[in-house]
Design brief:
By secondary structure, this protein is α+β, with helices and mostly antiparallel strands. Helices cover 28% and strands 35% of the residues. Strand 5 and strand 6 form a beta hairpin. The two termini are 24 Å apart. The relative contact order is 0.19.
Length: 140
C-alpha cells in the first residue's frame, strides 16, 4: 500500500505536468519535496546552463533532494518526468508522465500516466499504473 504522502505529492505534481503538456506539448523535469510537518514545496535551483539536458536536470534535482534528506528536513519527495514507457514487456511504448516518489520510510514507487496528444493539441490520458522502484534519495 502506498504511503498517503504520495497521494498529496501526486496531487501537486500531476496538475502542473498536465498544464505544461496542454500549453507546450512537453515539460522539463521538476520536483516537489515534503517537509517533516507535511508542507509541500517546489524544488528548484540554478545552473549556469540556461537549458540543461533532462538527465543533467534530474541529477541536479536528486542531488539537492539527497542533501535535504541528509539534513533531515524532508520526509518525502516526487520528481516528475516526461517519458516513454510501457506497462508490460508485451505492451507498446507510449508517452507518459512519470512521477518518481520516495519516502523516508524506505518506500519508493514510480507512477505512470500514459497520454496521447492529438494534432489539435488536445491531450488524452490513459489509466495510471505504478511499479516499485529503487531508493535514490533516502539512502544514507
Amino acid at each position: 500500500m502506498a504511503h498517503p504522502d504520495f497521494d498529496r505529492l501526486l496531487a501537486e505534481l500531476l496538475p502542473f505536468a498536465e498544464r505544461m503538456l496542454l500549453q507546450y506539448g512537453e515539460f522539463y523535469p521538476f520536483a516537489n519535496s515534503m517537509s517533516l510537518i507535511g508542507e509541500i514545496r517546489d524544488v528548484g535551483g540554478w545552473d549556469v546552463n540556461e537549458h540543461p539536458s533532462s538527465p543533467d536536470l534530474i541529477r541536479f534535482l536528486v542531488d539537492g533532494l539527497r542533501h535535504q534528506a541528509e539534513l533531515g528536513i524532508i520526509r518525502a519527495y516526487g520528481i516528475c518526468l516526461n517519458v516513454r514507457a510501457r506497462k508490460s514487456e508485451d505492451a507498446r511504448m507510449t508517452d507518459a508522465i512519470c512521477c518518481r516518489l520516495e519516502h523516508v520510510n524506505g518506500e519508493a514507487v514510480a507512477v505512470f500516466i500514459p497520454y496521447h496528444k492529438t494534432p489539435s493539441t488536445e491531450v488524452f490520458y490513459g489509466n495510471l499504473w505504478a511499479n516499485r522502484s529503487k531508493a535514490e534519495v533516502f539512502i544514507y
